[in-house]
């Protein structure tokens, strides 16, 4: 087991920030921790990485209990916090040598480790550039480089793609995928599509509790649309729509726009389009009505309540 957390709970003052967080990661890949702002993602990650002690519970990294043998456990963890601890007056080389030493890499192997990680993260051309003169995307790469320099089994990244522009985003995702070839990556985001694009598994956290934990495919099945929004220039009577196979409900939002509830049948869309054409309803718009993230959060939260 690469990571196991047992009933992790944390209280900052009187209120609990997280309660009974149980995570098990047995396999390689990218695992996403999804939650809205304040859900408890950073608290969970800080505890896993040992920068915060939990009020209750245990963390095992590669089978090592972090409370009992923190040094050995931390050898197997790399951490990219939300605000990476970059020393901006150092050059990339100076900074990475420093982090390699912090990670207790054998002195004779520091140089090779720095070169290897620069190569992996596309930083070799900027070795002697001061960190303060780097763009946001390159600073992020330096942050990622320090998190893998000691070749940990588990790399934890707190909102690694937050605040990047579209090009930087593509580059960062590519780098994270490459890193996940050799390490297990646990990353957080408050953006569902980001987790969807990158992750094999999703752990959803809301108000400090896990509300969903499964593969990304299972999540997508669960949140699959069961309603379709349609707009007609020549709308039919409600009864006509109700007679179409698979339709379970019809809701007129105004005189032209209608929400069709259906049983999840993949061909519902096609069937509705055919009916519109055959009957001259003059279909103007059609699209799945996927619940917004907030709705999904609510749906999942109430399920476990
Ligand atoms: N140092 C602190 N002292 C007191 N309360 C805190 C502290 N850090 C976080 N909290 C509270 O704990 C809860 C969880 O916060 P946390 O930062 O873990 O959430 P998050 O999901 O990472 O959100 P964000 O994406 O906004 O960072 C929030 O209610 C937050 O206000």
Automatic annotation (TrEMBL):
Domain ABC transporter: 3-232
PROSITE patterns: ABC_TRANSPORTER_2 (PS50893)
Coiled coil: none
Superkingdom per UniProt: Bacteria
Keywords, in A-Z order: ATP-binding, Nodulation, Nucleotide-binding, Transport
SMART domains documented for this protein: AAA (SM00382)
Pfam families on file: ABC_tran
Gene Ontology molecular-function annotations: ATP binding; ATP hydrolysis activity
Family statement: Belongs to the ABC transporter superfamily.
PANTHER family from the UniProt entry: ABC TRANSPORTER ATP-BINDING PROTEIN, ABC TRANSPORTER ATP-BINDING PROTEIN NATA
Protein name: ABC-2 type transport system ATP-binding protein
Organism: Pseudobacter ginsenosidimutans
């Amino acid at each position: 087991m690469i990571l196991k957390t047992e009933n992790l709970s944390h209280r900052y003052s009187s209120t609990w920030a997280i309660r009974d967080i149980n995570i098990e990661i047995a396999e390689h890949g990218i695992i996403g921790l999804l939650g809205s702002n304040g859900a408890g993602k950073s608290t969970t990650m800080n505890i896993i990485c040992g920068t915060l002690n939990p009020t209750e519970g245990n963390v095992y990294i590669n089978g090592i209990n972090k409370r009992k043998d923190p040094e050995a456990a931390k050898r197997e963890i790399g951490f990219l916090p939300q605000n990476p601890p970059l020393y901006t007056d150092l050059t990339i080389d100076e900074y990475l040598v420093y982090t390699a030493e912090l990670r207790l890499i054998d002195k004779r192997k520091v140089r090779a480790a720095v070169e290897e990680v620069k190569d992996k993260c596309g930083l070799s051309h900027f070795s002697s550039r001061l960190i303060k003169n780097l763009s946001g995307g390159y600073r992020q790469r330096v942050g990622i480089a320090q998190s893998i320099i000691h070749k940990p089994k588990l790399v934890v990244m707190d909102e690694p793609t937050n605040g990047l522009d579209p090009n930087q985003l593509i580059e960062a995702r590519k780098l994270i995928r490459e890193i996940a070839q050799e390490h297990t990556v646990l990353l957080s985001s408050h953006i569902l599509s980001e987790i969807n694009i990158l992750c094999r598994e999703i752990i959803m956290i809301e108000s400090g509790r896990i509300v969903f934990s499964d593969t990304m495919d299972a999540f997508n099945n669960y949140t699959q649309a069961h309603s379709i929004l349609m707009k007609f220039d020549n709308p039919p009577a409600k009864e006509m729509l109700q007679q179409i196979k698979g339709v379970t409900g019809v809701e007129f939002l105004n005189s032209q726009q209608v929400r069709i509830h259906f049983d999840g049948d993949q061909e519902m869309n096609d069937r509705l389009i055919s009916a519109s054409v055959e009957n001259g309803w003059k279909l103007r718009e059609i699209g799945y009505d996927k619940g917004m993230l907030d709705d999904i959060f609510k749906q999942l939260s109430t399920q476990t309540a």
